Amino acid sequence: MTDKNNNQDNKFLKHLKKNWAKYTVGILLIVAILYNYDRDPKVTQAVLASMVRHSTPLVLGALCGLIGERSGIINIGIEGQMLISAFAAFMTTAYTGNIIFGVVLGILTGMFMGYLLAIMSIALKLDQIIGGTVLNILALGITSYFYQVGLSMGQKILPIPLGKLADLPLVGRVLFNNPPITYTTFILVFVVHYILFHTKWGLRTRAVGEHPRAADTVGVDVFKIRYVNLIIAGGVAGLAGSFLSLEAVGSFERAMTNGRGFVALAVMIFGRWTPFGAWGAALLFGFASAMQTQINFSGALDIPYQFISMLPYLLTIVVLAGFVGRSRAPAASGVPYEKEG
Amino acid sequence: MVNTVLEVQNITKRFPGVIANDSISFKLNKGEIHALLGENGAGKSTLMNVIYGLYKPDEGQIFINEEAVEVQNPHDAIARGIGMVHQHFMLVPVFTVLENIVLGSETTNGPSLNLRSPRKDIQKIIDQFNLDIDLDTITEDLPVGIQQRVEIIKALYRQVDILVLDEPTAVLTPQEVDDLFKIMRSLVDQGKSIIFITHKLKEVIEIADQITVIRRGKVVGSAKPDEADQQSLATMMVGRDVDMHLHKKKAEPKEMILEVNNLVVKDANGNVEVDDVSFEIKAGEIVGIAGVQGNGQTELVNALVGMIPTESGTVKINGLPATNASPRKVTEMGSAHIPEDRLKDGRVLPFTIADNMVLNTYYLEPFAKSGIRQQEEIKEFAVDLVEKFDVRTPSAENTASSLSGGNHQKEIDAREFSRPINLLIAAQPTRGLDVGSIEYIHHRIIEKRDEGCAVMVVSTELDEIMELSDRIIVMFNGKIIDTVNADEITKEQVGLLMAGVTA
């Protein structure tokens, strides 16, 4: 009995030892937020809501990245997938006047881009970094070429407050008064987690990402898993693109993704290739972006705004430099699979 | 009445340039351990890949339970009751044992993965065959022998009746081999049948019920273990009389070649791996470094050849200082190094065999002239070596990674033995080789000694140390525990020294 208790204590201590940094940062953040909320609830709520807004495309981008990479394909074309989907979603909405059509077409475009990456990296066995770069350049080229100044889509997607929940102090406005794609993102984090760690498909995906030959010898179709995952991942990036043009901005601008696809990669790595990890990491990045806006806006600090605008990107560099080495990517990611015989 | 569970008839499989299997036939009976004995590259693994559906045979027929079948792919093989434990394990390192076992044959509970009922079934199998394993351990944390057990359970969970074990003992310690044999016995006692692929004569005689010998893709004979002995099997397998004992003249040590004084080597974490080691090797003698794996031999060799830095102490080769010299400097001083892990060190696997043959001389004449590679010279040289050292490959233009089993070792031996050298440092020079190749390598090593080369052989095989060495240095915990003349000590005494017991 005591033995078992001891064992559990040990496990807990080990867990604490490993994750103390995360917990410390988390607790400090919560304390800081509560303190600020007490002093100035309006601004605090605004900053937090802005954090969620900023984090949404990052979460989606990171989910796209990790769905692919868990099956063994590195996707650095998230930026391009998001950009071209944002464009497709906006154009469709502008011409049909139907936002739902827009979102659907955004997702389909993303899926098509995922399919392209799959063909390049699975069937043609092209280097996956090059494949992703192709997507990025393709997306930038196409959207810039077809971009028309002066098109408008009317009203962007509006927040839907969830009844009484939206009136809760502090979190109400932040979590329960969002537009639909943001809610969908919350749900997707849980769904992807469930699929990845609690279904047959997820088990096979992870096996294919770690040791494809082992999966192959027990009858798992490596190519099928990779194709399907990349196409679904593309759809998630497409949703991120739709979010940017239809929900966040309400129009399309040249290169409007503005590096978010790459930040999403950093988010994915920081989150250790897990959906919840990615969510946490995305909120951290979103917070940095929100703070940047807030500090610039309030003019409280006497620093040129260019430096403050660097905040999220600086964070990316620090995180990538400090954590990439320590977290472990799926072993087979980046390696094309060749069947024997 | 004998019950044939698997029969292959006249299987032929050709690859570009080679016939890997040439009309092979054999029968596997129920409850039998059937050994397929053959040299490295004899075609054993090809045959198994045909049976397991990884390769399509060009000719021939497979019968399972006396019914003609065509095995399309591994999945099909499993469905027909054939399971395979590969030489390189097919396990996902970061999965738990349980996850690895169910992968590919998952049961679901609605959309969710169901691990609870498989756990019960697997536990039953574990108890039934005395396999003793914890299902929740992460696979990569397990020792090799236990990982192999996971592979066996994986096959049993898929309800196979025929189990193919491809060189299962190659990666195991002697203790683990004993455990494996116990498991194999327990499996056949309960009605399973086993095909056991190996080139180790001792093991075949110990465990097999029936032996089929394959040489160069053909069945050359069969035997019962109680009627055969190692000598006759070796002759059959290699195709000529193999001398199982070395005959060598007494060593005539001459001038000093290698001097090591108070050498200390630390690993990356600062642990002392080689602790104040001093010894010398003269021209014309073979010094064997004996020791259980992990007692500092690897680090000693790596430090001598310049692969890792030394902490303190000195090394002299031919009287010249060679402490912390670069590998190229050490090579140019006339020394050769056969690394322990030939898949990791010493060769570039994606390169051709020809390029690997000149990997440490490519910049010298005649392989390069004013910085330009001389393709013809390199090719000629390599073709000659491939022939001389019997490296089994369609051509010297194939990549080094395409070689099978012991041919990796032969390739590196060929390169190092063909240079003019006066110091040979060989770590595990015959690991994974069959008797024919071992004999060949041993003769070459003795030949080098007689030519006046100083030889240092590191081996964990006690037999090899005893056979080859003129003097034996035993290492324990990074220290030299004793140095003895080989003809003044018994194998048992060396064994005790290796365990750290001093008289």
Can you put this structure into words, describing what you see?
The complex is a heterodimer of chains A (341) and B (503). Chain A is an all-alpha fold. Chain A has helices at 2-39, 41-70, 78-96, 99-123, 128-146, 171-175, 180-198, 200-210, 212-217, 222-249, 260-270, 275-298, 305-309, 311-323, and strands spanning 160-161, 177-178. In chain A, strands 1-2 form a two-stranded antiparallel ribbon. Chain A is globular. The mean pLDDT of chain A is 87. Chain B is an alpha/beta fold and 503 residues long. Chain B has 16 helices and 24 strands. The chains are: A mainly alpha (341), B alpha/beta (503). The A-B interface holds A 198-200, 202-204, 206-207, 210-211, 213-220, 331, 340-341 and B 49, 54-56, 73-75, 78, 84, 86, 89-95, 99-100, 102-106, 108, 111-113, 154.
Which tags fit this structure?
heterodimer, A: 341 residues, mainly alpha, ABC transporter involved in vitamin B12 uptake, BtuC, two-stranded antiparallel sheet, 14 helices, 2 strands, 74% helix, 1% strand, B: 503 residues, alpha/beta, Rossmann fold, 3 domains, 6-stranded mixed sheet, 16 helices, 31% helix, globular
Topology readout:
The complex is a heterodimer of chains A (341) and B (503).
Chain A: H1 2-39, H2 41-70, H3 78-96, H4 99-123, H5 128-146, E1 160-161, H6 171-175, E2 177-178, H7 180-198, H8 200-210, H9 212-217, H10 222-249, H11 260-270, H12 275-298, H13 305-309, H14 311-323
Antiparallel strand pairs in A: 1-2
Chain B: E1 4-15, E2 18-29, E3 33-38, H1 44-51, E4 59-64, E5 67-69, H2 74-79, E6 82-85, H3 97-102, E7 107-109, E8 112-114, H4 116-128, H5 144-157, E9 162-166, H6 174-189, E10 193-198, H7 201-207, E11 210-215, E12 218-223, H8 230-238, E13 256-266, E14 272-282, E15 286-290, H9 297-304, E16 312-317, E17 320-321, H10 327-332, E18 335-338, H11 353-357, E19 368-369, E20 372-373, H12 375-388, H13 407-417, E21 423-427, H14 435-450, E22 454-459, H15 462-468, E23 471-476, E24 479-485, H16 491-498
